Amino acid sequence: MTILLLSFSLFFFGCSKKPQIKIKELPNTYLSESSFNELLRWDSEDHQEALNSFINNCKSKKTQDIYGFLCQKATQTEDAKSFFESEFNVYMIVPENSEDKGLLTGYYEPTLRGSLTKKEPFIYPIYEEPKDLISVELSSIYEELKKYRLRGRLDGNKLVPYYAREEVDKIDADAICYGDSKLDIFFLEIQGSGKVELDDGENIYVGYANQNGHKYNSIGKYLIEQGEIRREDMSMQKIEAWLEENPNRVNEVLNYNNSLVFFQKKPHSASGALGLILEPMRSVAVDREFIPLGSMLFLKSKIDNEDISRVVMAQDVGGAIKGALRADMFFGSGKDAKLSAGHLIAPLSLWILLPKESN
Fold first, then answer.
1. Which domains, from first to last, does the chain contain?
2. Taking 80 as the threshold, does the pLDDT of residue 11 lie above it?
3. Is the Cβ–Cβ distance between 297 and 287 less than 8 Å?
4. Which residues are within 8 A (CB) of 261 and not within 5 positions of it... i.e. 6 or more apart?
5. Over the stretch 85-99, which tens digit does the pLDDT of each residue have?
6. DSSP letters along 130-181, please?
7. Which residues pair with 347 in a beta bridge?
8. Residue 191 near residue 110 (C-beta atoms within 8 A)
9. φ, ψ for residue 347 (rounded to 5)?
């Protein structure tokens, strides 16, 4: 019986030696047949570490749905490299535009200072999901919209867009705790999760709960358009430094991003959309309209001006991660992780590993 994972249809273009494959469930994604021999530095990969990541990824139902019995077989293998090469086919993710080189960025788990009570200097709230926020699952009415969710609030008997960032004082939400920096909380929203060191000596973890429904707008792009930071100099550190040097324009710049993220307490450090604890340099966020969450990928890019190629797991999503050739790599926590993630803007090539047919 063939493993039930994703339904494929083949499309042949001219005399191309490598037929492209289009995933029916992800109609914008094209794949090109490849092989392990074409993966840069495949032989020097830490195959056992990659296998351990795959086994951990198999704790999620989405991964089990894609890879079936291979999740169990992975726990019994003694030769990780042979397991990959004998059980998986490799497909290169093809850009819609031939000039698109893909984009890899990074994220990390920030650490903030906070308090459970509002008092100086802890005056900036980290909000729970608002009581008046309504989320509508459109798939119950329109099956073709199953990947979309409508968010808003009631105005009388009418559903209207929820409050934008500049209207944050109007929302009806409790605060999990209070931070001492508006900028730190803004960047916490960008990262999606973090640790808060409380003034009483305790630590709490917070993670994404919901969002106000507004489109994510990059403040980095805004500062480039305003002529404040050159495109070639752009990084999270540059943005932070500029905001600190221009306190009178902080609200203007932050409010350019109407998207507002709400949080919930978490029992442990950073976890992604699959509910699994993220693994530094092995976990990536993707656009699930193009790449299935739970899938295993092979990534080629540059980090700190050095070539990198490795197996990674699609475990997370992000508001700024859009397109088939787009990924956000998790770097962990701490100053080094923040520095590497904040500076990472690099070309990206991606492959997806899918199971071979099995009787």
1. 8-106+282-334+347-355 (2.40.40.10), 218-256 (no CATH)
2. no
3. no
4. 189, 192, 208, 210, 211, 212
5. 999 999 999 887 766
6. PTT-EEEEGGGT-GGGTT-EEEEEEETTEEEPPP-GGGGGG----EEEEES-
7. none
8. yes
9. -60, 155
